[in-house]
Design goal:
This protein folds into 3 domains: 134 residues, 3-Layer(aba) Sandwich (Rossmann fold), CATH 3.40.50; 62 residues, Dna Ligase, domain 1, CATH 3.30.1490.20; 179 residues, D-amino Acid Aminotransferase, Chain A, domain 1, CATH 3.30.470. The chain is 32% helix and 27% strand. It contains 14 helices and 18 strands. The radius of gyration is 21 Å and the shape is globular. It binds adenosine-5'-triphosphate (ATP) and magnesium ion (MG).
């Protein structure tokens, strides 16, 4: 018998609804019972939709656990193909190829949230897809996402659905705002599909430029910091939360992630609690990342959720007992979640575009670990690799050192 997620699916398919607590609890108990019976022990065959660096690093982590990965991606020469024996090159709409893929693996996961929902729904006919597509659906649509967060009592920037230019003027007036950010509801990444506008701008002109039926307007948060929290949750409901990282963006692309973040424990606790609340509410299986803004008066506002491994968690490979990638693989494959304990302080820096050609300085240093994704075309803005500078937390005890 396969898991059906009818209750959660129904509740989130409606644009802006709540999770009924009672229903969710019943559902959780049922689903755990079924999944525990169904999940296998290695050798497990894992399928990943998407062949980018996140898929590549997940497949590497899977290999370490004796799990074989098949990557499904439309692009030839996908970076993840280099590290797996099996891959399928086909479109996300190719039903024949999808069926073959689903039947060749025990569980399917995905490495980015813009996988078409129809693709994962189709795969669910043949195999389990984790994290659950219901959560994917919420993360693919900024309006559903914001409503979902607010329904859970998690604060965000004030926002409104925009269906015509006049709505933008009303949003500014209603909230006494001078500025706002207009975003497409779907397919945004690295700040694409966004425009900042002020009360005096020509909303009609900006609206026309985007050619969308519906968009979201958000107040501009004058944040002090951006942080993110990554949580992994297994089929038994056990979780591991990584230390929140402080994230610095350059030209709308993540540049650096720093742990420890240097923020107060009160702030970090709020962010961790919100993240835990989301994971439990949706019966998460796998990894989820939540991005937050921290304001000058220490308010913690959720910005985005991603039910997948996250760029701001790459430091976990070199600074934690079990990385976000290994934990994602463990959880979706029905294995127990591992420790998120951090054994080193870390600074992760993305190598964007040409920066990939200047790795000698890092390779010659004792403090850096270099990760090159093996991409051939170093276009500006393209994430080509990353480096992690590590600062071990404490030296080995003298007893161990002498061995
Ligand atoms: P990414 O792929 O980097 O996560 P994205 O395209 O999905 O980006 P967001 O995360 O919503 O979009 O926005 C990108 C960046 O723009 C944020 O990290 C933040 O720096 C800035 N930003 C977004 N929304 C707001 C806001 N309401 N107020 C202030 N800054 C914002
Ligand atoms: Mg973001």
């Amino acid at each position: 018998m396969r898991l059906t997620h009818t209750k959660i699916l129904t509740s989130v398919s409606l644009p802006f609804s709540r999770f009924g607590t009672h229903d969710t609890l019943n559902f959780l108990q049922e689903s755990f019972a079924i999944m525990k019976k169904e999940m296998k022990r290695p050798p497990i065959r894992l399928g990943i939709l998407g062949g980018g660096q996140l898929g590549r690093m997940s497949a590497l982590a899977a290999a370490n656990l004796g799990i074989k990965t098949t990557i499904y991606a439309p692009e030839e020469n996908s970076p993840a193909f280099d590290v797996t024996q099996n891959h399928i090159i086909a479109d996300y709409g190719d039903k024949k190829a999808l069926k073959k893929f689903a039947e060749s693996v025990d569980v399917v996961s995905y490495e980015f949230e813009n996988i078409p929902l129809e693709t994962v729904r189709y795969l669910e006919k043949f195999t389990q897809v984790l994290p659950r597509p219901a959560l994917l659906e919420v993360s693919q649509h900024r309006l559903k996402e914001k409503q979902f967060l607010n329904d859970l009592g998690i604060p965000t920037a004030r926002w409104a659905a925009i269906m015509e230019p006049q709505d933008m003027n009303e949003f500014h007036t209603d909230h006494k705002l001078y500025e706002s950010i207009l975003k497409t509801v779907r397919f945004g990444y690295d700040g694409k599909g966004q425009a900042r506008l002020s009360k005096t701008d020509d909303c009609k002109r900006i609206w026309k430029k985007f050619k969308q039926d519906i968009m979201i307007a958000e107040e501009v948060i004058d944040f002090k910091h951006e942080i993110s929290v990554i949580i992994a949750r297994d089929i038994f409901g056990k979780t591991a939360i990584y230390d929140p990282s402080r994230n610095i963006h350059t030209d709308h692309i993540l540049d650096v992630s720093i742990v420890p973040s240097g923020l107060s424990e009160a702030v970090l606790k709020k962010a961790r609690n919100y993240t835990q609340k989301i994971a439990d509410a949706v019966d998460l299986v796998g990894v989820l990342a939540v991005e937050f803004f921290v304001t000058k008066d220490d308010k913690v506002l959720a910005n985005e959720i991603a039910p997948r491994t996250h760029n701001s968690g790459h430091w976990t490979i070199d600074a934690c007992t079990v990385s976000q990638f290994e934990n994602h693989v463990r959880c979706v494959c029905g294995l127990p979640v591992g420790s998120a304990k951090r054994h080193s302080n870390a600074i992760m820096k993305n190598l964007i575009g040409d920066a990939i050609y200047s790795t000698d300085q890092y390779l010659n240093s004792r403090d850096f670990v270099v990760h090159n994704y093996g991409k051939s075309d170093a276009k500006p803005g393209r994430k080509m690799g990353h480096v992690t500078q590590i600062f071990p937390l404490s030296p080995l005890s003298p007893k161990l050192k002498s061995r």
